[in-house]
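Re: the request from the purification team.
They wanted to know what the chain is likely to look like in 3D before they choose a buffer screen. I agreed to run a prediction and write the result into the notebook, where they can find it.
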Amino acid sequence: MRSFTIALAGNPNTGKSTLFNALTGLKQHTGNWSGKTVSLASGYYEFKDARFEFVDLPGTYSLFSNSSDEEVARDFIVFEKPDVTLLVLDSTALERSLNLALQVLEMTDRVIICLNLMDEAKKKGIKIHAGKLSKKLGVPVIPISARNNEGLDVLSDHLLRMCLGEIQTTPYRMKYNEQLESNIARLESEITDIVGNDFPTRWLAIRFLDGDKKLISTLQDRISAQDKGGVNYGAAKTLRSSNSHHSC
């Protein structure tokens, strides 16, 4: 049986944990991750001939590492490289949820968006054109109601197909002014020389230009760990020099 890792992300109170429980049932356990005090729940779900391990990331409104929850969720998506990041949005407050969605789409191509609480949206007279939203965002958008078990088979099918490489995405990426785009491109090129294509270099460049010191430190630690294994010698030092140059 093939095994895949799914990161479950979303704002608080979007029904993310309800979806996690609906899919994994009693096949769950909780533990701290990467030495952090934040606990992550994980659980298993089998569909057709595949076994999915769902990791329920902390509910956050952003991924800018302003809190331990944000840092853990961000680091898992970027550095653990789940096969798919499943992003749960609140259909009754879509505009608020899309802020996090745009951040995740900068970080990874392997995203499926769940429009949860569709039953509540219908009661409020809210209509969402999932197909148009999918076309705009460049990733699958699946309407569901986790508590009513509606749409979960369609979701599971999309998860499996994306894990198998049968669904290609073209995630929406924010475009900035000409000067900032030039700075991003220049720094992205330098980062690519250091880390290759292992991590989302455009997103890293944006965060570095924003002065995200925690992220810089985390990446340096990751590179240093690789150095000890005989990989990419000197990269952490080069990264520090590159960041110092662009911080001036």
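For the purification team: Residues 230-236 have pLDDT under 50 and may be disordered.
Please add any questions underneath this entry.
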